[in-house]
Amino acid sequence: MRILQVIKLKEKGFFGRELMHNVVVVTDEDGTTMVDTSLPENFDLLVRRLKEINLSLEDVSKIILTHSHPDHIGNAEEIRRTSHAKIYAHKEENFVPHDFNLSYEEVNKEMPVSREEFYHTLSRINQIKLEVPRIDVKLRGGEEISGFKVLHTPGHTPGHIALFDGENLVTGDAVRADGGLLPPLSFFNWNNEMALKSFSFLTSLPYKRVIPYHG
User: Fold this and answer.
1) Exposed, middle or buried, 85 (CB in 10 Å: 0-12/13-18/19+)?
2) pLDDT tens-digit map of 56-111
3) In whole angstroms, what is the distance from residue 213 CA to residue 176 CA?
């Protein structure tokens, strides 16, 4: 039997808002797969949420990273140390740490925010301390993992991926939910034109349930 569950975590102080993190956990006969891992500050809560669904870090055999942003990769290496899980990500994704260079004007245009909250958030996200994960399996797109087909959905980042099992569509940051399904925030996108194409592709699929990472 294959069971898909969503662990809901939160990131506070995101341009004056709370940002939901939807960590997907799939358990089947081959073990437990986790899709994205949230921020280091959420590690203890993630462990408790796993326990609530009768799982532990030791059960995690695969970690799939939709892309390299800190709120997705933050606990990957910590989990690997406990579970010896293999980490999967797209071959085009760059995991070298870098700062987000954003302007107040571009953020405020899309997400109204005070200057104080803008600079507080930018400082916080650029100071996140984490271990950069070692990728064990580099994906190309089209692979089958834990009942999902891997979809290469570039735009938000070069190697962004989504996962689809015919019913459940796990979108990472290629789709967000905010009063409906929306493309990712343009000021965080590597290539906004490609991000919009990936959004259109994903939302055209015959899914029954969409699980964005945020929303």
Assistant:
1) buried
2) 999 999 999 999 999 999 999 999 999 999 999 999 999 998 899 999 999 999 99
3) 7
What is the tally of structural domains in the chain? 1
Which stretches of the chain drop beneath a pLDDT of 50?
none
pTM score, whole prediction: 0.97
What are the structure tokens assigned to 19, written together? 């940002």
**How much is the pLDDT for 10?**
97
Euclidean distance between CA atoms 125 and 158, whole angstroms: 20
Range of the domain at 120: 3-212
Could you tell me the CA-to-CA distances from 119 to 8, 13, 23, 113 in Å, in that order?
Answer: 26, 11, 27, 10
Q: Check if the beta carbon of residue 205 is closer than 8 Å to that of residue 169.
A: yes
Q: Encoding tokens for residue 16?
A: 């004056």
* Structure token pair of residue 29: 């006969």
Tell me whether residue 77 is exposed, middle or buried, using C-beta atoms within 10 angstroms of its C-beta: 0 to 12, 13 to 18, 19 or more: middle
CATH number, position 70: 3.60.15.10
